[in-house]
Amino acid sequence: MNDWRQLLHDHYDDPYHRGACDAPTHAGSADCEDCQCQLDFELCVDASGKVLQAWFDGAGCETCEALASLLAGYCEGLTLGELRQLNVERLGTRLGLTSEELWNAAPCTSLPLMALQATLRSPLDPLDGDLADGTSFGGPSLREEC
Question: What is the reported pTM?
């Protein structure tokens, strides 16, 4: 098996940060109609714009899910500005894959990056959680006080 194929297989079998982020500040998703793959990304970003955690979930082929796992690990520690400059070719280089290898891997090669880009454009409203059903202390909600 080629080294890059083994890398993808390893990340598919044991993905990095697959699931939901405990305290997401950004969330987005993308899908690929050609191969029926779908991915969601969530980021936890600090006040300076640095990604503290990156998580993904979805249903996709081995390549798509493995690339999402690699991308989640790569995102952490970078700023939103640095991630906005990321493209498929640069992602392949950063992950140790040539552009040709990356493009030939599957039709949904760019899906993880598309999901990440949607996430970067979709900050979450921190007051949304205040409106959810849950523990109440009898006072007005934060939104009602505004």
Answer: 0.79
Given a contact cutoff of 8 angstroms between Cβ atoms, the answer to whether 80 and 45 are in contact is yes
SS3 136: coil
List beta partners, residue 39.
Answer: 30, 58
CA distances from 37 to 54, 60, 143 (A): 19, 4, 37
Residue-wise pLDDT tens digits, 82-135: 999 988 777 777 777 776 777 676 778 889 999 999 999 999 986 555 444 444
Given a contact cutoff of 8 angstroms between Cβ atoms, the answer to whether 29 and 58 are in contact is yes
Cα–Cα distance for residue pair 70/44, rounded to 1 Å: 17
d(CA 40, CA 56): 5
